[in-house]
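pasting for ref. prot 1 ->
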Amino acid sequence: MNCLFYGPPGSGKSELARHIGFRLKRKPICKRLSDLLNPYVGISEKNIKNAFSLAEKEEAVLIMDEIESLLYSRDRAVHSWELSLTNEFLTQMERFRGLLICTTNRIKDLDEASLRRFTFKLKFDFLLPEGNVAFYERLIQPLLPEPMNPKIRNQLQQIPCLTPGDFKTVRDRFFFYPKNQLDHQKMIRSLKQEVEIKKRPQQTGRIGFLSSYPVHAGRPLKGSYAKGSPYDCQVRS
């Protein structure tokens, strides 16, 4: 069975995947891109195959985080190894006799063919107002000297786009503070700051030199390094 958990960061996708393994009394085998990629030809594909084989042999739950890094759209692939990785993963998905759970924050980047291979696709969303209160009471309230009053509850319920991960971040930030230095308003402000950070526009520009065409030792490059290739760079004037 192949499952896809998708939604915003911090919404509990990986935690639920591990919890499913715990409830099924099966060992979770968690793999990230760094566990699978290798600079040598064919080794990354072999690592993918070995991960599936190990999970099937041990009857474990195979968990793949940030799966968009392996199942990106083949229409946008630039290098042959990108196609090879995606094809190998799709092949192993079809042959796998076990439970595979993949997580992603960017479902739009996944290869369309891969989506059809997931038996279940479960969307994780931001918390509802009552969810805000539940996670506040569980993670934040123990740090504070005073109980939550109706005014604070109302403010908390009105904060949009919160995830369980936001409450954990705030909890960890103030965990070692003395209680007499903390209050509800400080926690509410911190939660709002977490939301504001998520609203900031993502920087998509290139890192490094900026130019309108690739150069080498002051001269434009030709051939496979011509403009538009993945190796082009830009020089700031």
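and prot 2 ->
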Amino acid sequence: MGKQWDYFHRTTERQEHMSVLVDASYSGTAPLPGFSRLLSVVVNLYAIASDKKERENAQSRLGLLERRLDALFSERLQAVYIGRINTETRLEFYYYAKPGGEPHRRLAESVLEAYPTYRWIASERDDADWTFYAYLRPNEIEKLYAKNNILLQSLSQKGDRLDIARDVFHWLRFGSSENMRNAADSAKRLGYSVVNSDLDADKPTYQHTLIISKKHSLGVDAMNDSVKELYDLTNTFAGKYEGWGTDLRQKLWRKLRNGMSGRRIALAGLLLLAAVLIAVPLLMAKYI
């Protein structure tokens, strides 16, 4: 089974900010029969944050630690790595394994002895129903955040300068013209401009499409905030948030190499991405 990583940001009820990486390939099969042991290894990041040399090397060292733990637990315990949580103060790795076998703390210790300055703890509990995996899985808005990360990563790989402000276009769909007009008025009050509206009578539902735009950079926080307010707006008017697109803003050298001057990436966008398998690197998140 191939890995299908969802990566997104979450704010808990206690207002703790975390980045979550979870393997979505188990979403249709969880819980796996027999894999009832939930294993965790939690690394305290305080020591890393306070040491300049550790901060400089943290990305590569923590990525290597992640891969070593995954490989060792897979080989010795036949455990499956389901994901991680990253906060400002800790990094948590999670796995499911069958009962019995070696204590995973002992295995983790054999890896972490190469990291003598790191404080860490290993724990396990029974979770035959995979309730913790369900907790890791994204809700509807977090699924959009995950797709934001995929699209932004794709733009960055194409040489886009994400810090440059540009018009970002959003597609919203509604079941009636009245709901669409009311949504358009609300979007204007939020600072958006109406670009176009359309009727597609061939669609069985959500026949009315509204296209709006707003100028800003493509930072992750900015995009997530924009998508969240428009997701809430469409829900208010019984609509559906469809996705976003923008112009590609490349560095000059890449423009010259590609012979292009700002190609439009107009993906109605997230639906298209949802159907594409993109391998998300384990080092996608910044740890510090």
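Confidence is low (pLDDT under 50) at residues 252-256, 260-288.
The longest strand covers residues 166-174.
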